[in-house]
């Protein structure tokens, strides 16, 4: 029998760490190969981590709730000597080998991302880029770099994890202009040497939005009273700052903790003085005063799915100029047909809601307005008109909004759509949704009616071109033959990317949807 360490496997998509949500085993437990031993939450989904061995768990090296970097040893097993080198442990001796397969986690996308990002790696390393030449930047930032004739691989990133921001690109362009050079070589002059810590500077020092560190390093930082996001990082992992125990000790010895505490106290004293003076200084330092005077309360880590949703919504809102169209139509015919078909569907254990009807109508409308089944390739400067109709369905869960995708929705009937929607929604709420099921969407539908909303201004699931929101069906005043009567109507809202379509196309789209849903017999012909 020999001991074998097990590292947290590659979680795919360039993900560098995950939160260890729960252990499914304990020291002394016997496990079989591929048996789930832990659940890890990434910024994408909840991932089940299987055991690569048959053997006995001898030690667990991370606690539940801790953030664990990829390749960190999370468990030790006692196994037969003949099984000491199973396929998948090559990563311990060869960093370029294939990552360990983690069940539903797909490493292929991460390898593709690495391959794409490492072009011109030598130049990026000389200019302060991430190890391996990886440059992290949004498409809009890359587009700006091209417009300003700046080689983005030579730009030092000051964003979270060394990401290149638009401000970095503009500074590089201005620096090149001032020096009279045609290439932004000046960005390399300001790059720290390899021996210097990799840090992201801010007005307050080295504060970062995101820091990677081993659980033991985080515990050390807490014991020393240090915010790990303030500690200069001497390494990087997956393009993110990586803090070691030595970094923490060096920071403490340099007086970093005391200096930070003193600065905080000074700000607090200034705020108190301002308050004593009747608040006359509130206008000059609102941020600090507000922070010092803020009431206490629970602090919840901003990470995992919640952070992913937030970052994607921010990217969408600040990248795609949204325009929202609202409308309402008489849904009496839809209500009657759905009630009739639901009885038949119940006999086959199919839960037929209004959503499958809307999916059918939306896919038909996308064929009429193809620029809404599209996305903008900023790098190439081209609009991509998709030839598949993959409809995302927004599902509210306890952990946030997930969007599973119905592939080839235009080829499916009402019953098939109803079954698939029900299955995907259940998997989403149970956190068992495969990541592949959330990829490849070309348009999204969200149902705000189930929670009582009337209208909304939904945010586009970027880089898609639009999102359609269903409101509730209920009795409202409606004009029929010049008389006001009570009719069951549905409200709808739709946001579109104004770079790809105008309001006229949005209205054309919603008119087509309404025509089909108001006379749902037409859907049979779709």
TrEMBL record:
Enzyme class label: transferase
InterPro entries, per the entry: 2-oxoacid_DH_actylTfrase, 2-oxoacid_DH_E2_comp, Biotin_lipoyl, CAT-like_dom_sf, E3-bd_dom_sf, PSBD, Single_hybrid_motif
Name under which the protein is recorded: Branched-chain alpha-keto acid dehydrogenase subunit E2
Species classification: Archaea, Methanobacteriati, Methanobacteriota, Stenosarchaea group, Halobacteria
Family annotation (Gene3D superfamilies): 2.40.50.100, Chloramphenicol acetyltransferase-like domain, E3-binding domain
Similarity field: Belongs to the 2-oxoacid dehydrogenase family.
Low complexity bias (residue ranges): 117-128, 174-190, 285-294
Region (Disordered) location: 84-137, 156-241, 273-301
Highest rank taxon of the organism: Archaea
Peripheral subunit-binding (PSBD) domain location: 136-173, 212-252
Gene Ontology terms: cellular component: cytoplasm
E.C. number(s) listed in UniProt: 2.3.1.12
Cofactors required: (R)-lipoate
A GO MF label: dihydrolipoyllysine-residue acetyltransferase activity
Residue intervals passing through the bilayer: none
Keywords: Acyltransferase, Lipoyl, Pyruvate, Transferase
Residues covered by the Lipoyl-binding domain: 3-78
């Amino acid at each position: 029998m020999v001991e074998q360490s097990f590292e947290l496997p590659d979680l795919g998509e360039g993900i560098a760490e995950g939160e260890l949500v729960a252990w499914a085993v304990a020291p002394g437990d016997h496990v079989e190969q591929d048996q789930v031993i832990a659940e890890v939450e990434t910024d994408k989904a909840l991932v089940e981590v299987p055991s690569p061995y048959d053997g006995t768990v001898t030690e667990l090296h991370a606690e539940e709730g801790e953030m664990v970097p990829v390749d960190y040893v999370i468990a030790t097993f006692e196994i037969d000597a003949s099984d000491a080198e199973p396929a998948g442990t090559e990563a311990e001796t060869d960093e370029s080998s294939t990552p360990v397969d983690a069940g539903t986690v797909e490493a292929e996308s991460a390898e593709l991302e690495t391959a794409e990002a490492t072009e011109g790696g030598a130049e990026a390393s000389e200019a302060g880029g991430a190890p391996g030449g990886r440059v992290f930047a949004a498409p809009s930032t890359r587009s700006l770099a091209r417009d300003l004739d700046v080689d983005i691989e030579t730009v030092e990133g000051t964003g979270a994890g060394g990401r290149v921001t638009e401000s970095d690109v503009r500074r590089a362009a201005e620096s090149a202009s001032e020096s009279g050079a045609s290439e932004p070589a000046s960005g390399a002059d300001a790059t720290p040497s390899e021996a210097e810590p990799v840090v992201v500077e801010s007005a307050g020092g080295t504060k970062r939005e995101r820091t990677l560190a081993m659980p033991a390093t985080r515990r050390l930082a807490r014991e020393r009273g240090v915010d790990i996001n303030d500690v200069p990082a001497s390494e990087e992992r997956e393009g993110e700052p990586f803090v070691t125990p030595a970094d923490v000790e060096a920071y403490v010895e340099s007086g970093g903790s005391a200096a930070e505490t003193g600065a905080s106290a000074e700000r607090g004293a200034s705020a108190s003085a301002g308050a004593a003076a009747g608040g006359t200084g509130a206008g000059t330092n609102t941020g600090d005063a507000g922070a010092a005077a803020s009431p206490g309360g629970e602090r919840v880590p901003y990470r995992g799915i919640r952070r992913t949703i937030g970052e994607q919504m921010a990217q969408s809102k600040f990248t795609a100029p949204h325009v929202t169209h609202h409308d309402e139509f008489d849904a009496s015919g839809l209500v009657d047909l759905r009630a009739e078909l639901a009885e038949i569907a119940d006999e086959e254990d199919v839960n037929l809601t209004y959503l499958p009807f809307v999916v059918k109508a939306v896919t038909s409308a996308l064929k009429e307005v193809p620029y809404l089944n599209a996305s903008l390739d900023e790098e190439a400067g081209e609009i991509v008109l998709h030839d598949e109709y993959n409809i995302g369905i927004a599902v509210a869960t306890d952990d946030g909004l997930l969007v599973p995708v119905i592939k080839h929705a235009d080829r499916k009937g009402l019953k098939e759509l109803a079954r698939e929607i029900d299955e995907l929604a259940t998997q989403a709420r149970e956190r068992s949704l495969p990541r592949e099921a959330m990829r490849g969407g070309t348009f999204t539908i969200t149902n705000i009616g189930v929670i009582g909303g009337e209208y909304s201004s939904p945010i586009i699931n970027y880089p898609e071109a639009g999102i359609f929101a269903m409101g509730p069906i209920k009795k409202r005043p409606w004009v029929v033959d010049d008389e006001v009567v009570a009719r069951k109507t549905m409200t709808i809202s739709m946001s579109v990317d104004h770079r790809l379509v105008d309001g006229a196309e949005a209205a054309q789209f919603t008119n087509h949807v309404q025509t089909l849903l108001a006379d749902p017999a037409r859907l049979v012909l779709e």
